[in-house]
Amino acid sequence: MVILSACSSDTVRPGVPNVPVNEQISVNSLQYPMLRQDGGYAYIQGGYRGIIVVRQNASTYYAFERACPYDPDANCGVVSADQSNLFLTHSCCGSQFNFQGAVTSGPAVYGLLQYRTSLVNNILYITN
Ligand code: FES
């Protein structure tokens, strides 16, 4: 019998797998209209299960892995911005993170995996 469980609390937490990350986006692209304002964000490909890019200000952007640090392989989705646009949440069992990637509500105990970013001439390079 196979039991699908998204948030079992009786197992050791697997870490988010360390996959090669090497993405670049133009932060001014029409593809990412929300990156034009502070606090805006965009979902892009890459990482283990996708990456969310958050604009802190015009010169500072963060990039977080969308796999939940509580259960990276949860089969019920990935971390997304909630309707308030103030928090990143994982709908499986409700872990919540702020836009700096820190846990604000469990069951997750670790913050979102953060990737390195560097901005050169409006191109944001995302690596690990
Ligand atoms: S796996 Fe349950 S909150 Fe992320």
TrEMBL record:
Keyword set includes Cytoplasm: no
A GO molecular-function descriptor: 2 iron, 2 sulfur cluster binding
Regions crossing the membrane: none
SUPFAM superfamilies membership: ISP domain
Record-given protein name: Rieske domain-containing protein
Keywords: 2Fe-2S, Iron, Iron-sulfur, Metal-binding
Residue span(s) of domain Rieske: 31-126
